[in-house]
């Protein structure tokens, strides 16, 4: 930017005029008083707790949801799944009165462990879901809706509450309420669960740690603010490294049908699918190898209620190896390992997942990027507002890509829960998903596919016209449609984003893996066929910008660049074949993609509308060395060279001191109007200086392009640029925006 | 090498050993300090650093000490919040939230001499949270925007232009152009590499230019 629309002084003046005012009178005193009124938690948190990160059970509910509160005298609210809904006080009374792990329904007001807590690593009992540890120890189900004052692992006098745990439960219904405005009270929640959990392996719930089993182990989230929550389904396929990730053969519906075929009066509460070697996270007694579940690819754990002889619902917990109905077990206190085999008979189900998606093994890393799940990617964009450092970090995201058929009804379902951005794109883009799990986000209604929001984490990949996917046709007809396992490389917070909303869209840079094979080495040609080989172009770009992995290459018509890049250059726009390379580089210690452009058969390299430096001058002075990179936008520089230290300047230079970092002297050597001598003093802290000639042929930007922290030693920089036309020193404009520090 | 009339830093003619700060010529500072810049532009500097002893007392629960800190730092916090949010009521909310959070979190601050940078970061986060709350609120509000610069000149045009930028860009621009913080200091406050700050600031300035241009055309 040679000539910003306002210079820095004008901008600073405007800032000062607009915002440089003191706080309102008396405001400081009022704020101090507010802090005085808030107080601090009496229990000092250790320093490690102060470090910010989001936690699994961080259910941000500082404000209540918009739904009306249920009326206590509503008979439908008195029972949940056949269980009477108790108050928290009643539930605690039951805990004291009986050591039985009996299922109860409790209504209370949820005070979650606040976000921003990082828990210390616990070396012991880390796989025990029953143990009350950080962060669950800071979450409460309270008798009354008033928020707690501060972060508490114990309640202040007068407050009644219990500490719920949600092992294996989908807590996203809480997360989706995060940040909703309300009346400042806690949301009302009805849970089903039990105390005195039977899952106590060695050293768990023993005498020295009685509090470890005082937690309320939830088996269902029944309702939030009076709104019913569907039975929980968690498909958690993440392996412990380095095990490969496997996809389930069965769907949750398959599992339900399998159980209901044998026990028809089951009332399903929750289902979990997880790798066999992680079974100990839910069922500690099996984590050491009992029943051999840890050696199986995937297992399902299902919680359900069934009325006993007295009509009182009792919890039944089943464990079934995925795809193997003859490997089914039920939790039983009579068994030494806590589970006993059961016979489910002949399953009236056929596997729903197709061979293509069954047990897909995604690579753990690609192009040097760790392959993450959709949920992890969404966590990045959610966390990013609190950390500038994330920004447009390049991510490799695995998932299942699905596009709607042409005939799909282009009508997004209304949803009372605000979706995570960018889930509200316009139709039909809003129906294209990268799914965490290979679910089918549509229902067939009279033979027509009606799209709905995916149950599990999903994002909308924004695929630019330069990254067309060459995938098998996904939708021949509705019955054969299925998502395809892919790995997409892309980023949030694209540099072209102008709003928060746009910034949170996942911009796809490359399809790097699908159908079990790496992809992306091919060149996508949408413009006139190129004359150069991709390898030649990559080498040419690397010579100017440095070596980098090219994750995607496309040849496009220059005229189409306006839809791809926000600031295309005229030279590119006029060309029939423009190469666009997505280059994976490191910037600020993180991987990012930067785009390089070059006209097919030409020599100049552009980066996002900015021309790459074409000439480089190494300056070695008495105090150190530096490099000057010369960028020539109008393409009129014939030569750039350093002036030898002993070459005097026979004319008095024009010295510019305003608007630049260091004074700059300009002169035309006598009789050589096409040459411009430029001198200034840099420092050895400035590793690279940029000299940029603007398109107007008169504006020259002189600024340090890369500076390190060090004590400065001055270095004279004295160069001559030779142009193909006269450039009078007295008309040249000099600027240096962007320097500092 | 330069002729008379061109200020030459002493280091050029008298080389000094590395890792020694080069004294700048008096009449043409080579790299002015932040407070010098601010004074030269006729505005007050950000202010002296908060006394670590005061921070230590507040950390131990001394509310009077904390109140002294609030009084000393309020203007800077409010000004930054206002520049990020553009709205006085929101700026008041964010400022209050920043100080309340600071009071709450102060026991976790290990190095009292880092208090000012720490408070700036809390302020940025508080402004961001306020912005998020406001963006939700606006779903139900009709946002009435006054004609850019109609009555306020450059400052009005600037406010209107900033309103179109993402909060991250507003934050960087405010820290650099309002608070006169150099890139290294912004990087320190935001805990990100200086190179990242530099590139983002560059992008932000470009976006602001576009927005100013658009405002000028309206």
Radius of gyration of chain B, whole Å: 20 Å
The helix tally of chain B amounts to 10
Secondary structure: number of strands of chain B? 0
Name the poorly predicted regions of chain A.
Answer: 41-73, 121-127, 206-210, 347-358, 385-390, 412-426, 472-479, 737-741
Number of strands of chain A: 42
The biggest sheet of chain B amounts to: none
The main sheet of chain A comes to:
9 strands, mixed
Structural class of chain B: mainly alpha
Question: Mean pLDDT of chain B, as a whole number?
Answer: 69
Order of helices and strands of chain B: HHHHHHHHHH
Rg of chain A over CA atoms, rounded to whole Å, is: 32 Å
State the separation between the terminal residues of chain B, measured CA to CA: 50 Å
* Binned strand content of chain B: under 5%
Question: For the largest interface in this structure, which chains are involved and how many residues does each contribute?
Answer: A-B, 89 and 104 residues
The shape of chain A, in one word, is: elongated
Low-confidence stretches of chain B: 1-46, 135-151
What quaternary form is this? heterodimer
Q: What structural category arises from helix and sheet content of chain A? A: mainly beta
Number of helices of chain A: 10
Quick overview:
The complex is a heterodimer of chains A (741) and B (218). Helices cover 11% and strands 31% of the residues of chain A.
């Amino acid at each position: 930017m040679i000539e910003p629309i306002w210079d820095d002084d004008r901008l600073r003046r405007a800032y000062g005029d607009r915002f440089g005012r003191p706080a309102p009178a008396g405001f400081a005193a009022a704020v101090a008083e507010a802090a005085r009124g808030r107080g601090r938690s009496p229990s000092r948190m250790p320093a490690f707790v102060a470090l910010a990160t989001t936690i699994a059970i961080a259910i941000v509910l500082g404000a209540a949801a918009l739904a009306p509160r249920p009326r206590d005298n509503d008979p439908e609210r008195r029972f949940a799944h056949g269980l009477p809904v108790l108050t928290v006080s009643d539930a605690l009374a039951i805990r004291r009165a009986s050591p039985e792990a009996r299922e109860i329904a409790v209504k209370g007001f949820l005070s979650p462990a606040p976000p921003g807590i990082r828990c210390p690593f616990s070396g012991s009992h880390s796989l025990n879901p029953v143990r009350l540890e950080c962060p669950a120890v800071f979450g409460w189900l309270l008798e009354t809706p008033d928020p707690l004052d501060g972060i508490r692992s114990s309640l202040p006098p007068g407050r009644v509450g219990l500490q719920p745990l949600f092992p294996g439960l989908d807590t996203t219904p809480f997360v989706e309420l995060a940040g909703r405005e309300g009346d400042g009270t806690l949301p009302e929640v009805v849970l089903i669960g039990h105390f005195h959990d039977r899952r106590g392996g060695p050293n768990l719930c023993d005498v020295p740690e009685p509090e470890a089993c005082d937690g309320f182990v939830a088996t269902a989230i029944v309702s939030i603010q009076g709104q019913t929550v569907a039975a929980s389904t968690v498909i958690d396929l993440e392996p412990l490294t380095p095990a490969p990730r496997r996809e389930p053969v069965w769907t949750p519906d398959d599992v339900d049908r399998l159980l209901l075929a044998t026990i028809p009066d089951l009332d399903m509460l929750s289902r979990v699918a997880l790798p066999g070697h992680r079974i100990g996270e839910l069922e500690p007694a099996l984590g050491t190898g009992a029943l051999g579940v840890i050696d199986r690819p995937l297992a399902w754990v299902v919680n359900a209620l069934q009325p006993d002889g007295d009509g009182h619902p009792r919890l039944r917990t089943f464990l079934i190896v995925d795809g193997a109905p003859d490997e089914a077990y039920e939790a039983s206190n009579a068994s030494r390992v806590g589970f006993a085999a059961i016979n489910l008979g002949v399953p009236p189900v056929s596997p729903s997942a197709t061979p293509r998606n069954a047990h897909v093994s995604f690579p753990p890393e690609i192009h040097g990027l760790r392959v993450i799940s959709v949920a992890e990617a969404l966590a990045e964009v959610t966390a990013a507002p609190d950390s500038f450092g994330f920004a447009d970090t390049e991510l490799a995201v695995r998932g299942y890509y699905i596009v709607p058929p042409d005939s799909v009804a282009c009508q997004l379902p209304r949803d009372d829960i605000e979706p995570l951005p960018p889930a509200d794109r316009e139709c039909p883009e809003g129906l294209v998903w990268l799914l965490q799990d290979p679910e089918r986000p549509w229902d067939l209604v009279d033979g027509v596919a009606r799209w709905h929001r995916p149950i599990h984490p999903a994002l909308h990949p924004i695929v630019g016209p330069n990254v067309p996917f060459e995938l098998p046709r996904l939708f021949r007809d509705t019955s054969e449609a299925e998502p395809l396992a892919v790995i997409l490389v892309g980023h949030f917070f694209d540099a072209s984003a102008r709003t928060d909303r746009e910034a949170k869209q996942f911009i796809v840079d490359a399809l790097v893996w699908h159908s079990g094979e790496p992809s992306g080495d091919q060149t996508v040609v949408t413009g006139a066929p190129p004359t150069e080989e991709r390898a030649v172009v990559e080498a040419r770009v690397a010579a100017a910008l440095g070596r980098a992995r090219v994750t995607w290459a496309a040849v496009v018509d220059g005229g189409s660049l306006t839809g791809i890049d926000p600031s295309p250059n005229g030279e590119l726009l006029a060309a029939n074949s423009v190469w666009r390379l997505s280059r994976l580089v490191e910037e600020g210690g993180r991987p990012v993609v930067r785009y390089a452009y070059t006209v097919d058969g030409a020599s100049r390299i552009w980066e996002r509308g900015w021309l790459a430096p074409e000439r480089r001058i190494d300056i070695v002075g008495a105090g150190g060395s530096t490099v000057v990179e010369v960028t020539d936008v109008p393409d009129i520089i014939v030569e750039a060279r350093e002036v030898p230290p002993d070459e005097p300047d026979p004319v008095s230079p024009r010295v510019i001191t305003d608007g630049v970092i260091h004074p700059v002297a300009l002169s035309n050597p006598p009789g050589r109007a096409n040459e411009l001598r430029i001198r200034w003093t840099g420092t050895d802290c400035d590793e690279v200086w940029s000299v940029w000639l603007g398109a107007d042929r008169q504006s020259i930007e002189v600024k340090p392009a890369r500076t390190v922290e060090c004590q400065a030693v001055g270095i004279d920089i004295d160069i001559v640029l030779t142009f193909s036309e006269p450039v009078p020193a007295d008309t040249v404009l000099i600027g240096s925006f962007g320097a500092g520090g | 090498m330069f002729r008379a009339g061109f200020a030459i830093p002493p280091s050029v003619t008298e080389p000094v050993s590395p890792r020694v700060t080069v004294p700048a010529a008096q009449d043409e500072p080579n790299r002015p300090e932040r407070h010098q810049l601010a004074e030269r532009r006729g505005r007050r500097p950000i202010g002296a650093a908060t006394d670590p002893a005061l921070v230590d007392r507040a950390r131990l629960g001394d509310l009077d000490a904390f109140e002294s800190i609030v009084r000393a730092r309020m203007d800077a916090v409010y000004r930054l919040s206002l520049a990020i949010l553009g709205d006085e009521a929101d700026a008041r909310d964010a400022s209050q939230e920043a100080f309340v959070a600071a009071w709450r979190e102060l026991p976790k601050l290990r190095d009292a001499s880092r208090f000012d940078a720490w408070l700036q970061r809390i302020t940025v986060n508080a402004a961001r949270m306020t912005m998020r709350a406001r963006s939700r609120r606006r779903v139900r509000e009709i946002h009435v925007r006054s004609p850019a610069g109609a009555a306020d000149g450059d400052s009005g045009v600037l406010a209107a232009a900033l309103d179109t930028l993402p909060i991250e860009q507003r934050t960087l621009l405010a820290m650099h152009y309002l608070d006169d913080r150099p890139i290294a200091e912004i990087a320190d406050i935001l805990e990100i590499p200086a190179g990242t700050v530099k590139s983002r600031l560059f992008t932000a300035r470009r976006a602001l230019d576009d927005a100013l241009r658009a405002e000028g055309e309206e």
